[in-house]
C-alpha cells in the first residue's frame, strides 16, 4: 500500500515506546525514538521524519512545546503530529490540537486504529505536498506569463508609440495592460497634415487578443505615412485580419480621419459603441454609430469601407470609448449603460475633466477600479496645418533627375483607386525632394481632389456652407463617384536637373468643362480658391493656371546641399 | 447544463438553447452543442430567450457556428433576443450575418 515512512515516536514510558515501535515497524515504516520532547525536537531536526507520534506529558520538555517547535521547523511542509494521550477531558485534547497536533490517539493503544490514523495522516501529508508543488508551479507559470506580457508590451509600445498619441489635440485614458484586454489605440499624422486615429477592441483577452494588434498597427502606420486614404487602410486591415485571425476572433473598431484644414471628419465604426462628435458651440452632439461588422469578419469582396463625413469646426471634439465603460456592472449585475454615460456627457463642462468624471462615476457604480477602459478625445489641432515629414522604407541611393512622365487616370480607376501614394513614391525617389514629401503630398492631394470633385464630377462646393449641405455634398460625391463612367485626371510630371539642384513641374488637368476665373474668385470656399489655393501657393515654389481653366501647374525647386 | 441542443424530428434543423450568461466560459459547451450531434442539419436556431448576457467572445462563438454551418451559405436564426442582447448584436451589425428575431 503506502510508501515506507520515517516515523518519530516520542514517549517517556519505555514499555509504551517499545510497543509503539513494534506496531509501527511491523507496518513497514522506519522508526525513530525519543524519550522526551527535547530529544524529539533534536531528532526531528536531524532526520526530518514524515510523521510524529507524540506523548503529551513527558519530562524535560512536554509534547505541547515539542509539537510547536517541530511545526516551526517544518515550515510549509506538513509533518502530521498525532498526540498520544491518556488525557480524556476535552480541554486537554483541545490543547493538543492548539499546539499544532493534527490528531490524537487515546491510550491504551489500539493497533488497528493507529494504523488507520497513520494512513490517513499520510494521505493528508501527500495532498499537502501536491498542493504546494502545484502552487509553486502556478506561481512560476504566472511569473513567466507576466514576463512575457511585459516583453510583448514593451515591443508593442514601441510600435504603438511610433504614432502621435501624445499630440496636443489628443487626450486618452487606457489602463496600462489594456492591450491584454484586447484594446488598441493608434494615432498617426497624415503626410498632408491632419491625422488618422483608431480605437480597436479585439475579442477575447490575453495574448490571443493582443496578437492581432501588431499587424494591424503596422498596416495603420505604414499606409497612413504613405498617404493612403482611410478607406484603403480599412480594406487592407480587414483583409489582413481576415487572413490571419482564426474564425471567431475579430476587432471592433472606430477609425477617424481628421482633416484640419478642410474642416472634415470621416468616421468608420464597426462594432464599437457609439462615439460622439461634441460641438464646442453647444449644438447637440452627433452620435458616431456603428454601421459595419467588425474588422476581420467579412471577405474583402463583401467589406464596406463607407465612411460618414461631418464638418469639423475649431472647438469640436470627438469622443470614443471601448465597451468596457458601458459594460461595467455593479454587484447586482446591472450594466453601467449608455444612459449614465450620456448624462455625464451632458453634465460635463470642462473637456479635460471628462475622463476623470467618467472614471469617478464608474468607481462609484462598481465600488472598485475598472481595469479595462479605453477612452480617447480628439480635437482639431490648431498648429496642424503644416505637412509632416514622411517615413521611408529605404534609404534611396539612386537619384535619377532628368525625366518626365504622364499619367491619365480614367473613370474606372478614379472610382476605385487613389493614385497619390504611387505618384508620391515615384517622386520621392529623388532624395532632394524627400524633406518636402509632406508638402508635396499636400499639394498633390489638393490638386487631385479639386480636379476630381469639381472638374470631373462637377460638384458645387457652395453646397458645403452649412452642416446639412455638407452631408449632402459628401453623399453626392459618393454617388457620383460610384457611377462615374467618363472623365479623367491627368498628371504630367517633369523632373529637370538644373545647374545647382533641380526643379519638379507638376501639371494637373481634368476632363471637366474648365472654370470661369471670374466665378471662381467669387466663391470663397471653392477648394482651389480659398484655403486650398492659399495652401498650394504657400507650399509650392510656383503656381499657375492653364489658360483654358482645365488645369493647373505647380513647381518645386531645390538646390543641392553641400 | 446551461446549453442544450435538440434536432427537429426530420433532422433538418438544430435548436440550441442558451441559458444564463453566454460568454467565454461557455466556449466548449457551445461547440459541443453543434459538433456532438448525430444529425447534419440544414438550419440552425439559437434560442436566446433565457440568455441574460452576451459578450464579444460569444459573438466570436456565433461566428464559429456560422463557419461550421457553411459560412456565407449558413442559415442561422437567433431567436427571442432580449433588448439588451439585441443591442449588442446591433452594435456589431450581426444582422448582416444572422437572422435575428
Shape estimate of chain B: globular
Secondary-structure class of chain A: alpha+beta
Strand content of chain A: 15-25%
CATH architecture of chain B: 2-Layer Sandwich
User: The CATH topology of chain B is what?
Assistant: Transcription Regulator spoIIAA
Mean of residue pLDDT of chain B?
90
Protein name (chain B): Anti-anti-sigma factor
InterPro entries (chain B): MlaB-like_STAS, STAS_dom, STAS_dom_sf
GO molecular function (chain B): anti-sigma factor antagonist activity
Domain STAS (chain B): 14-101
Write the layout of secondary structure elements.
The complex is a heterodimer of chains A (562) and B (101).
Chain A: E1 6-10, H1 14-26, E2 30-34, H2 37-47, E3 51-55, H3 63-74, E4 81-85, H4 90-98, E5 103-106, H5 111-160, E6 170-174, E7 183-189, E8 195-202, H6 206-211, H7 213-225, H8 230-244, E9 251-259, E10 264-270, E11 275-278, E12 286-288, E13 308-311, E14 317-321, H9 323-326, H10 337-347, H11 354-366, E15 374-379, E16 403-410, H12 411-416, H13 420-427, H14 437-456, H15 467-482, E17 488-498, E18 501-510, H16 517-522, H17 531-539, E19 542-545, E20 551-559
Chain B: E1 3-7, E2 13-18, E3 20-22, H1 27-35, E4 43-47, E5 51-54, H2 56-68, E6 75-79, H3 83-91, E7 99-100
Parallel strand pairs in B: 2-4, 3-5, 4-6, 6-7
Antiparallel strand pairs in B: 1-2
Helix pairs in contact in B: 1-2
Protein name (chain B): Anti-anti-sigma factor
Pfam family, one (chain B): STAS_2
InterPro entries (chain B): MlaB-like_STAS, STAS_dom, STAS_dom_sf
